[in-house]
Every structure is written in C-alpha cells, then in structure tokens.
Amino acid sequence: MKIVLCDASPLIFLAKLDALDLISEIFCGEVVILKCVAEEVCSKSAGDVERIRLHRLLETAAVIAFEESDYPSRSLSENDRRVLKWAIQNRPDRLVADERLLRRIAREDGIATIGTFGILVAAAKKGIRSREVVRKMVDDLVGKHGCRVSVALYQRVISELEK
Description:
Blueprint: E1 2-6, H1 8-16, H2 21-27, E2 29-34, H3 35-41, H4 48-60, E3 62-64, H5 78-90, E4 94-96, H6 100-108, E5 113-114, H7 116-125, H8 131-143, H9 151-162
C-alpha cells in the first residue's frame, strides 16, 4: 500500500477548498499525518468549518506520534523537521508539502514530493475535478485564502490546466 505523508499547509489549504479528499483519491494510499501536524492544523487559529473538515480527515488517516526533530536545518520549523525526519526514516511514497526547503531536502534524499497546486493539477488531469473547477480553486487559494505563490508558479499551474 502506498504511504502519503502530509505536512500542514496543504492540509490547511485543501480544507479551505473542501478538497481534502483529493489526497486519497489521487494517491490511493494510506494518508499519514504526524500528531504535531494534526495539532497544528486543528489549532484555534483554524476556522470552524476547516477544523471540522480536518477532523473528518484525521478520523481516517494514520495519525502518528513522532517527536524526533534532530534534522540539522534551523531554517525549517520544528514540525517541518519532524516531518522530514519521519520521511527520511520511513520512506513514504509521497510527501505532500508546500515549504520549498522541506521539499528540496526531501527530493535530494529521493523522496517524491508534491504541493497543494500539484495536487489540484493532478485532480484536473485525472478527471477527478474539471479543469474549470480547479482553475477556480487555484484562484480562490490565491485571492481569498492568502496562499502566497510566485507569479512563475501561478503561470505554470494555469498553463498546465489549459493543456
């Protein structure tokens, strides 16, 4: 069975879009979320609707207590270091993360990564969501939900959706 390890920001953004189901639909595997990440995404700063959606996901995901964070990068948050350490030790089939440094280090270690926008593009390409719906989701992430994205990445995502 495939293992998909999720970091916080994709979970938060997909919850805002009511699209957490895309993770399991695209990867057809076990969704793993570290307990520290689950606590982060379900904190009081999460909106009520998003928190309900996240709790629903957590009921079906494997939530794992993992406290090791001795990865030697102080540029990453404590939780990102834990996610990276777990990924290196357990070799998931995919790491779902938006943090560029986390993804770069994971890829250098041979771990396949994908971010929120990659999941949305994959949903369109697999026909799980229409390209028009995904385009609206992308625009909502940037315009309504405060997702920061470079112009180059935004243009690449839109270009992929228009293919």
